[in-house]
Amino acid sequence: MTDTLNAGARPVTKPSNPRFSSGPCAKHPGFSLSDLSDAPLGRSHRAAPGKAKLAAAIDRTRAILGVPDDYRIGIVPASDTGAYEMAMWTMLGARPVTMLAWESFGAGWVTDVVKQLKLDADVRTADYGALPSLDIDPDRDICFTWNGTTSGVRVANADWIDDDRTGLTLCDATSAAFAMDLPWDKLDVATFSWQKVLGGEGAHGILILSPRAVERLESYTPAWPLPKIFRLTKGGKLIDGIFRGETINTPSMMAVEDYLVALDWAETLGLSGLIARAVASAQHVWDFCESRDWIANLADDPATRSTTSVCLKFTDPNLPADFAKRVAKRLDVEGVAFDIASYRDAPAGLRIWCGSTVEPDDVAALMPWIEWAYRAELAA
């Protein structure tokens, strides 16, 4: 699939799909807009067809991800951001909380908790490429991202989360769900959005609650007011309908249909197959970097390297500040790779999405082009 590359040689083979954006991400292989023809457009989401679609989205998510039967799954407004903020606003404050942040989205959750909710949190941060200390008192609530989308650093596992904890774990899993194994017994809250690993459309978030999270919701009333789209209880009881597809506000039935079609594809592979595709794609990038001294993975520890949002850095400290952006632009102009510049708050470099909808062969085909663009910019 890749071409043998001499210094400066222009590759011949291009990726069949140049979409390597980290969100919204590539649609699954074989996707067509005609696949969405069964969307109940112009119908109420509370009519039977819409309710059936929403319930199916919940049930099939549970089946593929292996979510325990006693966990609740809801479709909520405003993507992963809405789902995670809903969890923080409704559950935090009952116990001391530890905030873990090692990239920009985790830092955003810290801002929410410290500056908006004004909680006296234990804030632990790390530079891009590293993880903060994970030695945490099990009596504290914990907020963290499983995979740092803008740093390419993930937690290697959940062994650091106490089995006998009294605090809750709130996990932002948006760039991990469907591509990484999530140990549900360690997670009390998990959130993600459809436009990441399954290449869905932006709009809605998924909120997953353990029985312990439900207990917190039903026994604790926050000191601050809650807007309507954050309210998960009524009269001290969970609003069960939200977790049967009776959404808080009007969903996009086109986005719901798109998610169901993505689940059709995912079911043909199963979770293990989805994970394997991401690992295979990421491995192409890792192998490329390990055989060259001018580019490296941003993650310091190989055990924490992301298999979805793979972040790279150019190792020469004397390169111009805009060098990485110029490389990314050259690849975009060539129609080889779209949207692979690093996130605006992250160190300069490249970010290549390797989530499950991306073809591993396309990632392999991209690697010689990165070397070509690098050398072309050096010579420019």
Q: Architecture of the domain at 38-258, according to CATH?
A: 3-Layer(aba) Sandwich
Q: What is the CA-based Rg, rounded?
A: 21 Å
CATH topology of the domain at 38-258: Aspartate Aminotransferase, domain 2
For the largest sheet, list the strands in their spatial order: 1-9-8-7-4-2-3
Largest sheet: 7 strands, mixed
Helix-and-strand structural type: alpha/beta
Look at the structure and name the CATH superfamily of the domain at 38-258.
Type I PLP-dependent aspartate aminotransferase-like (Major domain)
Q: Using the alpha-carbon principal axes, give the shape.
A: globular
| Number of contiguous helices | 7
Strand content: 5-15%
Explain what you see.
With 380 residues, the protein is an alpha/beta fold. The chain has a domain at 38-258: 3-Layer(aba) Sandwich (Aspartate Aminotransferase, domain 2), CATH 3.40.640. 32% of the residues lie in helices and 15% in strands. It has 7 helices and 14 strands. The strands form 4 sheets. It has a 7-stranded mixed β-sheet, with helices on both faces. A 3-stranded antiparallel β-sheet has the order 12-13-14. A two-stranded antiparallel sheet has the order 5-6. Helix 1 (48-65) runs parallel beside helix 5 (253-290), helix 5 (253-290) packs across helix 7 and helix 6 crosses helix 7 (360-379). The longest helix has 38 residues, at 253-290. It is globular. The protein starts with 47 loop residues before the first helix and ends with a helix. Mean pLDDT is 96; it is low at 1-6.
